[in-house]
């Protein structure tokens, strides 16, 4: 059986120059609500600057972005953002590999708890995270506020 590695897919750190391709992938990914001001080029570039070792892309043999997973930390807890895999590569383990890379980075700096926000109507995303061993938190309600 051919694996994604055999097909020339490789994983590397995300850089700001990946933004346009990554954003296009996010737009094509069901359940990715991109309305936040944090999803601009500047917002993602800042996240990459502050978390250079925990943000990854998978690129195909031609260098095109086919998957993303961004990890960020406040120094106490880790968070995952924009975990997305192009439709033709879903189910091949690329997403799991990306998040495992982030887990390794977080563990190396002493992070022991990770959070993720999944949009309520993103059933496919919820199923993915449940399969990854994540649990919902019925005891909290998420608020946000734009400055």
From TrEMBL:
Mark the transmembrane ranges: none
- Listed GO molecular functions? acyltransferase activity, transferring groups other than amino-acyl groups
Domain named N-acetyltransferase is located at: 9-147
Keywords carried by this UniProt record: Acyltransferase, Transferase
Report the InterPro entries cross-referenced here.
Answer: Acyl_CoA_acyltransferase (IPR016181), Bact_Acetyltransf (IPR050832), GNAT_dom (IPR000182)
Q: What is this protein called?
A: Acetyltransferase
Taxonomic lineage of this organism? Answer: Bacteria, Bacillati, Actinomycetota, Actinomycetes, Bifidobacteriales
């Amino acid at each position: 059986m051919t694996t994604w590695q055999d097909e020339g897919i490789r994983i590397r750190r995300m850089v700001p120059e990946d933004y346009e391709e990554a954003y296009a992938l996010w737009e094509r990914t069901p359940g990715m609500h991109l309305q936040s001001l944090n999803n601009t080029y500047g917002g993602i570039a800042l996240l990459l600057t502050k978390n250079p070792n925990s943000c990854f892309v998978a690129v195909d043999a031609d260098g095109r972005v086919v998957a993303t997973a961004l990890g960020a930390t406040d120094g106490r807890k880790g968070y995952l953002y924009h975990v997305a895999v192009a439709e033709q590569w879903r189910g091949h383990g690329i997403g799991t590999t990306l998040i495992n890379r982030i887990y390794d980075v977080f563990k190396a700096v002493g992070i022991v708890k990770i959070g993720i926000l999944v949009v309520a109507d993103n059933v496919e995303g919820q199923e993915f995270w449940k399969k990854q061993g994540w649990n919902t938190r019925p005891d909290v309600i998420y608020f946000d506020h734009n400055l």
